[in-house]
Write a structure and sequence with these properties.
The protein is an alpha+beta fold and about 550 residues long. The protein contains ten helices and 28 strands. The chain has three domains: about 100 residues, RNA polymerase II/Efflux pump adaptor protein, barrel-sandwich hybrid domain (OB fold (Dihydrolipoamide Acetyltransferase, E2P)); about 90 residues, OB fold (Dihydrolipoamide Acetyltransferase, E2P), CATH 2.40.50.100; about 220 residues, Chloramphenicol acetyltransferase-like domain (Chloramphenicol Acetyltransferase, 2-Layer Sandwich).
Length: about 550
């Protein structure tokens, strides 16, 4: 009987794959363990071996083509076998090849979605789901529980600290009662709207809610053991995460063909190697990085041993995998989308800071007043955006959105990455008001107390690394903004003024623009206006 082979998931983040090269062609004989194709994933180009034997009857994805995971890759069966029903989609082939592609030979109990009747919620019981605490949040991690099962909960009490894609935030209860159940343990991640906790009268039986469906509009996830009387393997697309041993019960060691070959050449026993691939699979780098355990060998007895000189340095090679935080994932996704979707360009300018330095000294001499150079830059940007509305825009596929309001985002470095608090209506604020707002929001960001609303709605962004001694750098646009300004350090150096070489203070600015909305001339004119405001701070005090 013909076997359908789908595009395998060869990495934890793989959503689609590219067939880099086929090593077999239609009509070729295929043995179990032979390499069928080289598949390019989001992480590497990997060899994909066959776990079936027979004749390659059909190739569904040609070389260079991209296909989502689980789409038809190939069909293997007996020579001359009729596969028209499989190609027409009338017959659904079992997904055994997906299981074997991941080298899972023993399938434990799996999680299977089966519609069930909605569990009746007892009176007074409240089901709490993972909240959406930011506009881009798709899942959340419970950083810590501040209540435990059995504790009394008052309305307004903090139940837990939840790590979103932007910050770790306190999640308060809007109900009162006893914490009857915790559905997500500390350190675990779950999608928005998943069961987080249950609160209700003390002693209430909520087992039906936990085991069943708490929403009539959702499918229930129930535990169901596979039916041993049916030979069709379980569908792992709904399988619960399981730990797969390195060696199956039949003694087979999971290793890629290339890893096996290198191990054989080097005389390495695969049973001594720990695999870092999918589900403990041994891959090439595991063999290359393998260091055999030191063996105790009794030294031979000699009367006068000669000292040996060893010129080869030795030491341990260690690597540590650190789970990406929700913030790091969000930063990677957002900036990756920006960098690879927006055709950007950058413009550089150098600004004379002598007047700004003098003006800041005068302003800060006023009691209870504190203005930074960054505050001056933010104010100057807001005023320049008023004169150049083309920069204060956002691109969509069908329209360019011109914002009549000016909200400047200020990038702030925090422990886990980067946050961008937004100064709303920046153009309407004074220098001192901007300074106070920036300090307040930056403090909240660093303490992970900033609200999602305080990081939304920017129309332009300022990123300043001058305090780290960086003279010049280029930032990635914070979309949907059309531009971002990178601010360098103030540098004391010789400059020419009135035909004379004197000591001056300058600062370099880099404007990165989305060319879909901002052309080079528009960006240049914006920088010229910005330069005028910064070099003449009195114009910003009017």
């Amino acid at each position: 009987m013909a076997t359908v082979i789908n595009m395998p998931r060869l990495s934890d983040t793989m959503e689609e794959g590219v067939v880099a090269k086929w090593l077999k062609k239609v009509g070729d004989k295929v043995e179990e363990g032979e390499i069928l194709a080289e598949i390019e994933t989001d992480k590497a180009t990997m060899e994909f071996e066959s776990f079936h034997e027979g004749t390659l009857l059909h190739i569904g994805i040609q070389e260079g083509e991209t296909s989502p995971v689980d789409q038809l890759l190939a069909i293997i069966g007996e020579k001359g076998e009729d596969i028209s029903a499989l190609l027409s989609g009338k017959t659904e082939a079992p997904k055994k090849e997906v299981v074997e592609a991941l080298e899972i030979e023993l399938i434990p109990e799996v999680t299977e979605k089966t519609p069930t009747k909605t569990a009746a919620i007892p009176e007074g019981v409240q089901v709490i789901t993972m909240p959406r605490l930011s506009d881009t949040m798709t899942d959340g991690t419970v950083a810590s529980w501040l209540k435990k099962v059995g504790d009394n909960v008052e309305e307004g009490d903090i139940l837990a600290e939840i790590e979103t894609d932007k910050a770790t935030m306190e999640f308060e209860s809007f109900y009162e009662g006893t914490l009857l159940h915790i559905g997500v343990q500390e350190g675990e991640t779950t999608p928005v709207d998943s069961l987080l906790a249950i609160i209700g009268p003390k002693g209430t039986d909520v087992s039906g809610i936990i085991a069943g469906d708490f929403s009539a509009s959702k499918e229930t996830i129930t535990e169901k053991a596979p039916d041993k009387s049916v030979e069709k393997p379980a569908d792992i697309t709904n399988a619960a995460p399981v730990t797969i041993p390195l060696t199956a019960s039949n003694g087979r060691i999971f290793a890629s063909p290339l890893a096996k070959k290198i191990a054989s050449d080097k005389g390495i026993n695969l049973s001594e190697v720990n695999g870092s691939g999918e589900n403990g699979r041994i891959i090439k780098k595991d063999i290359e990085n393998f260091t055999p355990a030191a063996k105790v060998v009794e030294a031979p007895k000699t009367e006068s041993p000669k000292p040996a000189i060893n010129f080869v340095a030795s030491g341990e090679e260690n690597s540590e995998e650190v789970k990406n935080s929700q913030m790091r994932k969000a930063i990677a996704k957002s900036l990756g989308n920006s960098k690879f979707s927006a055709p950007d360009f950058s413009l550089n300018i150098e600004v004379d800071m002598d007047n700004a330095i003098a003006s800041r000294l005068v302003i800060n001499a006023i009691p209870d007043t504190k203005v930074s150079f960054n505050d001056m830059v933010v104010k100057a940007c807001a005023m320049a955006l008023q004169k150049h509305p083309q920069v204060n825009t956002s691109w969509t596929d069908n329209n360019t959105i011109y914002h009549t309001h000016i909200h400047v985002g200020v990038a702030v470095a925090v422990e886990d990455g980067l946050l961008v608090p937004v100064i709303k209506h920046t153009d309407m604020l004074s220098l001192t008001q901007i300074g106070a707002a920036v300090r307040d929001l930056a403090g909240k960001a660093r303490n992970k107390k900033i609200a999602p609303a305080e990081m939304q709605g920017s129309t332009f962004t300022v990123s300043n690394l001058g305090m780290f001694g960086i003279d010049n750098f280029t930032s990635i646009i914070n979309q949907p903004n059309s531009a971002i300004l990178s601010v360098g350090a103030i540098v004391e150096k010789p400059v020419v003024k009135n035909g004379q070489i004197v000591v001056g203070n300058t600062m370099k600015l880099t404007l990165t623009c989305d060319h879909r909305t901002v052309d080079g001339a528009v960006g240049a004119q914006f920088l010229q206006t910005l330069k005028t405001f910064i070099e003449n701070p009195v114009t910003m005090l009017a």
